Amino acid sequence: MPTIKKDGAQRVAEYLDSLPEWSQVLCKRLRSIILNADPSLAEEWKWGPHYSSRGMVCGYGAFQKHIKFTFFNGSGMKDPKGLFNHCVDNEFSRSMKLVAESEINERALTEYIQEAVALNHKGFKRVVTEKNVVVPAELQAALVRNKKALAFFEGLSYGYKKDFVEMFTTAKQEKTRQERIAKVVDYCARGMKPNDKYKKVAG
Questions:
Q1: Is 18 helix (H, G, I), strand (E, B) or coil?
Q2: How far, in whole angstroms, is CA 44 from its chain's centroid?
Q3: Which of left, alpha, beta for 48 (phi over 0: left; psi -120 to 50: alpha)?
Q4: What does the buried/exposed string (b/e) look like for 22-37 if buried means 16 or more CB atoms within 10 Å of the residue's CB?
């Protein structure tokens, strides 16, 4: 059986029980698959349900309309079944976006989890490469006018910066662009990442 840390298991259980029925079903199914995939896995709570074995392995979280299931070192995995369909441009992690229980392939996920554990046990090393996000001058100027927002934005990872920039650049009309600028600055001033308003986290 896997190692289940008492506090971690309790927090995960509370989190799952707090979810809407549709997402609760998916997350409980994922939890069961993970816990049965490899006995070396430890169930923990970090920023959400988190599972480790000689380092981070995987985790999941419920959003308003989907479940995000992430392999933290997914960049080192083979993905033979093409299951990674979300946040695939992240430097290290790879994710699956799930909206229905029918999308969960237990056998395939078990194989992926076992591969992720084996990757850690082989001593997978993350190699950080320098990535820079080009921030449009108009958005940069707005951030500069709010020191708190600017400090938060500059401390974000490449992926989150990219998400905020795309939130602005995908706006077609000038009015929408100005609204998006205000939204980005507001989020950053409050210390929020792009999807934080949709994520349900146990207290």
A1: helix
A2: 16
A3: left
A4: ebebbbbbbbebbbeb
Distance of CA 174 to the CA centre of its chain: 31
- Using CA of residue 158, residue 95, residue 202, residue 110, what is the dihedral sign? negative
Q: Which residues contact 184 (CB under 8 A, 6 or more apart)?
A: 139, 142, 143, 149, 153, 164, 167, 168
Q: For 127, phi and psi rounded to 5 degrees? A: -110, 115
Contact 36, 79 (CB under 8 A): no
Output the tens digit of pLDDT for each of the chain's 203 residues.
Answer: 444 455 889 999 999 999 999 999 999 999 999 999 999 999 999 889 999 999 999 999 999 999 999 999 998 899 999 999 887 667 789 999 999 999 999 999 999 999 999 999 998 887 666 678 889 999 999 999 999 999 999 999 888 899 999 999 998 899 999 999 999 999 999 999 887 765 543 33
Which pTM value belongs to this model?
0.63
Domains delineated in the chain = 3-121 (3.90.1150.200), 137-197 (no CATH)
Token digits for 20? 């809407």
